């Protein structure tokens, strides 16, 4: 994951037009779940040789597809509205319509995809030229498994624009917490999930073939890493991460 929280001047080359738009209402589903559904739809369309991707046209999330040269071959209405409101981005590279700082970050994400990462999740928060703050969570995935010439990267983004900088700061804190959570191994993440759902140390020990004391020591290290004091704080943190689209743990 890239947790990019540097302040930027704008979202696009025409930031005033972009930041004057009202943010769409998030669907409430974790972004990773939406991105998986979008990927499946793209796969079905490729198999049916239908390049219109009809179900993506009504999504509130911003969706784009680019080729190996970074040229956009698809952009849904939400993406066009928020990132290129004055001209279609189709047939253009991101640098033709994005602010250079944002374009640099997009290049960094794509380089990770081309280096072999199946997907990258990133986050950015900043202030537009009119003073409005924005927050973007993006999920970029490789389309290489589809073996579709001309399709390389699928991007799905959730964007909010508002005047409450405190809210942006809270989202940035969540990004940092998510980065720490991702550093936990699979067993520790499972301990987190079960603890948040109310499992006791004894119950965890029985299911994971660990002593109760061993589980408690693991939980102490997990709590310290995630900077929470007790199980209820962990549950609240994981719920916030899930509600904001970072994870999907069935909480």
UniProtKB/TrEMBL annotation:
The lineage of its organism: Bacteria, Pseudomonadati, Planctomycetota, Planctomycetia, Pirellulales. Signal peptide: none annotated. It comes from the Bacteria. It comes from Botrimarina mediterranea. SUPFAM superfamilies: C-terminal effector domain of the bipartite response regulators. This is HTH luxR-type domain-containing protein. SMART domains: HTH_LUXR. InterPro entries: Sig_transdc_resp-reg_C-effctor (IPR016032), Tscrpt_reg_LuxR_C (IPR000792), WH-like_DNA-bd_sf (IPR036388). One of its GO terms (biological process) is regulation of DNA-templated transcription. One of its GO terms (molecular function) is DNA binding.
